[in-house]
Every structure is written in C-alpha cells, then in structure tokens.
Design brief:
The chain is mostly helical. It has two domains: 308 residues, no CATH class; 105 residues, no CATH class. It contains 21 helices and two strands. α1 crosses α6, α9 crosses α18 and α16 packs antiparallel against α18. The longest helix has 31 residues. The relative contact order is 0.10.
Length: 435
C-alpha cells in the first residue's frame, strides 16, 4: 500500500514538473510572439451563444466559441482560455505517454513535445489550435482507455472546433461498430455518435443551408487546387500568395458582389471554381498533388517555410517580396527546433512501422491497439491534406501523437523480446538450408 502511494506521488510530482516546464516555455513564446493572441477571437460568437442564439454564420464551426464562454467575462479572457486549454491538453498528453512503461522512452515521448516550438507559437497566434490540442488529447486518451461514451462526446466537440475531424469521428464510430466483439463494444452505443451527427447536420442544414460543420470547404479547395498552388507551397503562405493580387477571385464577381450573398452560396461559387481549375489545368493538378504528398511525408520543415509576405503578380509572371518582413534569427531557430522535432518523429515512426511489418506474424490487434488510436487523428487528416492543402498548422496537433505511438510499440517489442533467435540467421541455418 505504501509503495503504491509513493509511486502515485512520484507520478504526480513528475506531471507537475512537466506542466511547469511547458508553461514556462509558453510564457517565453507568448512574450516573443508579437502576433496578437487569437484564441479569444471567438468572443462575438460566444456572446451569441450565451444569449441562446445560433451564431450568425458557420464560416467556422462553433466549438471554439463555446469553449471560450467560461472565460468571456474576464478582462484577459484570451490569456486565461489559452493557458487553461493548453494545460488540459498537456495533462492528457502526459496521461497518454504514461501508458509507456519504459522510463527512458516515456521521457523521450514527453520531452520531444517541448521542442515543438511552433505548436506553442500557434497556441497564441491561431484561433483554434489550443482548443484543438486539448480535445485531440482528451479524445485519444479516452479511446486508449476504451471509454467509448465520453470519447464520442469529445470527438463531437472536436469536429465542432475544426470541421475536418468529422472524418475521425466517423472512422472511430465505424471501426467500433465493425469490430465490436474485439473492443467489447455495446453496439447500442452507436446511437450516441449517430444522434450527435444527425443533430449537427440538421441544425447546420436548416440554419445555414449546408449539412457540413462549416462553410469553408469550397474556398479551401479553391486554394488547394489553384493552378498556381505548387508555386507557393511549401515556401510561402498560400493564402497571401494567391489572394493578394486576385488569383482567388471568382470570375464575374467583385468582392462587394460576394458580400451580398450568404456564406453557403459564396462557398458554392468557390467550389465550382476549384472544380473548373482542376479540369482546365490537369498538369497543375498533378503537380499540386505531388507537392502535397512530398510536403506531408518527406518535408521536415514547417510549412510555409518562410515568414513574411510573398505574392504572385496578377499576370502570374512575378513573385513579389515584402521587404519589411525579413527572416530573423529568432524565427530561424524556431524553424530549426521544429525541423529536429519532425526528423525525430519521422525516423521513429519509420522504425516502428518496419518492426511492425517484420514481426506481423507474432502480433495481434491487441498488441498495437494503443498505436492505432494514437495514430488515427493524424491518419484522418491525410486525405484532407492531399485534397486541400497541408500547411503545418492544420496537422501539427495530431502530429504530436506520432512519437508516443512509435515509442509505445518499440517498448512493446523490447519488453516481449520479439527479436528471438528464430529470426536471427546463423551460419548453421545457412548450411541447413543448403542441404
């Protein structure tokens, strides 16, 4: 009994130290990042929800605004919300890593997150990253521990924060339904995600004219399938590069014309233009896709690679550079740290997948269950990254789980000594084979 208490106290002290280190890191990033804090940018939607009104638009889903409500009455609501949800995410990330029993590998999984400076940078500068971080970690932990009811709820909240996670929501629901015996899943529980999905789709359809969680897919597709996309990615910010001089304009419509339309009709115009671009420019479509695959799996740098403002001239012949925004040493060091983090992630997952393939005959689904749940958030973003575009900010949160997924499996291989003599080819084995 005494030993258990000592172990529990030790884990608690370790978690507190981990939180203190990362909070100190966040304070430094908060000071150094001159961008305005963005997590409180949902305050107008939060006020609408407080009055029990549906938000006036669903250009973005309402999840972040809903989560901001508890802090909306504070003067520094952005600061409080950012640090609160960051710490929620850190606590659940710690609990996820706590499943890794090797102390050395556990420390690797925990410490590598702290060199992912760009994640902390985005927690201040992005409107939804900190909320996404909290609920990706909560949902993953609940899935690992097989708390199905709560995981459906948190996954629902997650795709109300960032609509792309609706794919993860559907994958988890279908996987549990198909493999219900393996996961000891009561099939009646599938009513929970089904009802949540129907309610979300119905509210959006009747109020905003689309069943989708948000009204941005057409515009995002237009960015990702623009005939000049491959010129921008991965070096430059695609939004600025294309939009500055009119390459995201819809032919026949001026900006004031678009403002007179509702968001659903605007998104349809962008969607039609994106499809038209793909049909008229098949070479660009192929090159865009190659660029996305390359950037997603083989590019170790943050995307966009460079800070500042770069844009394509209206005639498509010149790339303009805003000289007032140059690369600084501070930014380059941040890029270097993210580069190192990404290299570690990719090498570990390649090694883990190689062992998984090699030892596949000795494994069953239970052995890799943790790794599957930890990798699913990233896997669910792969089709979105290839169809739309894969700036680091869209996938940096699910990427955080790649290292824990890899090292957990490496720990399993080491603990169960899968590399037995039967896999080691000796001279004696060769001579037997020759006979």
């Amino acid at each position: 009994m005494q030993i258990r208490k000592l172990k529990a106290n030790s884990r608690l002290v370790k978690m507190v130290i981990y939180l203190l280190v990362n909070n100190l890191l966040m304070v430094i990033v908060w000071i150094e990042n001159i961008q305005p804090a963005a997590a409180g940018g949902w305050i107008s939607k939060s006020e609408e929800l407080l009055k029990f009104h549906l938000p006036s638009d669903n250009y973005y889903p309402p999840g972040s605004a809903l989560l901001l409500i508890p802090f909306s009455k504070f003067e520094n609501y952005t600061l409080f919300a950012t640090f609160f949800y960051m710490n929620v995410g850190l606590i659940f990330f710690y609990l996820i890593c706590n499943e890794i029993k090797s102390q050395f590998l556990n420390i690797i999984a925990l410490s590598t997150l702290s060199i992912n400076i760009y994640l902390f940078w985005l927690m201040k500068g992005s409107q939804d990253t900190v909320y996404e971080f909290a609920f990706v970690m909560i949902s993953t932990y609940l899935l690992i521990k097989n708390y199905w009811k709560m995981s459906f709820v948190t996954l629902f909240v997650l795709f109300q924060i960032r609509s792309g996670y609706v794919i993860l929501f559907c994958i988890v629901s279908v996987l549990l339904l198909i493999k219900y015996k393996f996961y000891n899943f009561n099939r009646k529980l599938i009513l929970i995600p089904l009802i949540l999905f129907i309610v979300s789709a119905s509210v959006n359809l009747f109020h905003y004219g689309t069943a989708a969680p948000s009204n941005t897919s057409g515009q995002t597709l237009y960015f990702g399938q623009n005939k000049y996309f491959y010129l921008a990615s991965p070096l430059y910010d695609v939004d600025v590069f294309l939009a500055q001089d009119g390459h995201m304009d819809v032919p026949g419509y001026k900006n004031e014309d678009l403002r007179s339309l509702d968001s659903h009709n605007i998104d349809e115009l962008y969607l039609n233009q994106a499809i038209k671009q793909m049909k008229e420019n098949p070479a660009s479509f192929v090159q865009n896709t190659i660029s996305k695959v390359d950037n997603l799996f083989f590019n170790f740098q943050k995307i966009p690679n460079l800070p500042g403002k770069y844009w394509l001239s209206r005639d498509g012949s010149t790339i303009n550079i805003d000289q007032s925004q140059n690369l600084t040493l501070k930014y380059a060091i941040g890029n270097l740290l993210y580069f190192l983090y990404r290299v570690i992630s990719v090498l570990l997952i390649i090694y883990a997948l190689s062992l998984l393939i090699f030892f596949r005959k000795k494994l069953n689904a239970k052995n890799i269950e943790y790794t599957i749940w930890a990798l699913l958030p990233f896997v669910s973003w792969i089709p979105l990254s290839l169809v739309y575009y894969n700036d680091t900010r869209f996938r940096i949160v699910p990427e955080c789980l790649i290292i824990p997924a890899a090292v957990y499996f490496l720990n399993f291989v080491n603990k169960h000594d899968l590399a037995q003599k039967s896999y080691v080819i000796t001279p004696k084995d060769i001579s037997k084979g020759a006979k």
